[in-house]
Amino acid sequence: MAIKNEIMLITYSDSMGKDLKELGELLNEHFQSVVGGVHLLPFYPSTADRGFAPTTYEVVDPVFGSWKDIEAFQHNYYTMYDFMINHISRGSSYFQDYLKHKDASSYKDLFIRFEELWPDRKPTQVDIDLIYKRKPRAPYVDVQFADGSQEHIWCTFDEEQIDINMYTDTTKAFVTDALSKLAKHGASLIRLDAFAYATKRPDTNCMFLEPDVWDMLDFVKQSLEPYGVEILPEIHEHYSIQMKLAERGYWVYDFALPLIMLHTLYTGSNERLVNWLKICPHKQFTTLDTHDGIGVVDAKDLMTDEELEATREGLYKYGANVKKIYSSTTYNNLDIYQMNCTYYSALGDNDDAYVLSRAIQFFAPGIPQVYYVGMLAGPNDLELLESTKVGRNINRHYYTKDEVLENIERPVVKRLFNLMRFRNTYKAFDEDIVIHDTEPHIIKITRKTGNLETTLSANLTDYHFDITFIDEATGHTEILKNV
Fold this sequence. Notes:
By secondary structure, this protein is of the alpha/beta class. The protein has helices at about 20-30, 65-70, 95-100, 125-130, 170-185, 210-225, 240-245, 255-265, 270-280, 305-320, 345, 350-365, 370-375, 380-390, 400-405, 410-425, and strands at about 10, 35-40, 80-85, 85-90, 140-145, 150-155, 160-165, 190-195, 230-235, 250-255, 285, 295, 340, 365-370, 430-435, 440-450, 450-460, 465-470, 475-480. Helix 8 (about 255-265) packs antiparallel against helix 9 (about 270-280) and helix 12 packs parallel to helix 16. The radius of gyration is 23 Å and the shape is globular. About 45% of the residues are buried.
């Protein structure tokens, strides 16, 4: 199914109901007008990171169901799958064959011997320090082969996530094969997880290297063109990288909006938000929440360093039941650029502030994505957090089917769903956008396509807002109710 300008739900296979079958039932029975697409987070067999260390792309993890369960809701929703272009599981048959046969393995060129990046010398600490890292260690693991020999193998993230070498024919064949299989299983869009880390050269930071990154993206794009499947490169970094991607026609993420939105609603000032809405890409997917934390680095230079720090501190001041320690090594969070909290709780579990944040997101340029916890206005899950000691689990509640049905009856969720239905069905969001000049505590956005026009007018201090729209049948201006 082609991509539609309708809200995309982000969810795990077992986060709304116990498996894909129950997720599909919920979607088809209760969410057909609320969302138009589904980003199904990794559903493959995996050994770590809740799916992001896949052993194969051939099958659906039997715990979740099968391809038939996914196909059952693809008639109504466009879908996005993940492809981990930087790494694959240590437990995969490819890496296990490499461990067993080493240089005789058919997959030896799929992986990267760390020292081989510097063929003429041994890498120094200066070389290692230069590499862009999100973990407080050198980007390799010590591996012992079946013959007893040991080597350093490139590993950027978790020790279960072994980097693959995107520069070899072996890897390119693997990538082409995996992508074609995902395309044939109905993907409308494939998200390239951690793609910017896949470019590696000596004497560089091995992060979003040009022109390597463009060659890699073009290769993936060309591999999927026969199937009509598009790609969404994923990167949490300075917003200028998203701008570069957009200039070349790629879909991008608006990862700057979440922090800018918090700053806006904490301070009541529209300055940073208005500036960003005027300059941001239009071929983008907007977010407020995802399965990761709330990013900070994404908004750097769109806000001053003082504003970034004040917003970070504001999360712990205004947020509900959130503490700094939840984003620390105590809770296995090694990424200093993200904060762990649900978006609803980041706004103090305040219904009015939360619904306003979504209204602004839905009027922004791009296609909105709403994470499943956010779609149900979920508060921080401290019980799951404490039982696992994993910081990001504060925002990864497992909703049973009954819990989903209970939550969609909450007033805040009903208000949100009314907004989502309007965003999906009113056809003024395809073309023009006007960001009006207003008083600093007011935000006013108009979307217009043909004779249809809708305007959001919001007070950023008391969170009151109105949405007016031209009724397609009568031509009269109406006010959207029940939001």
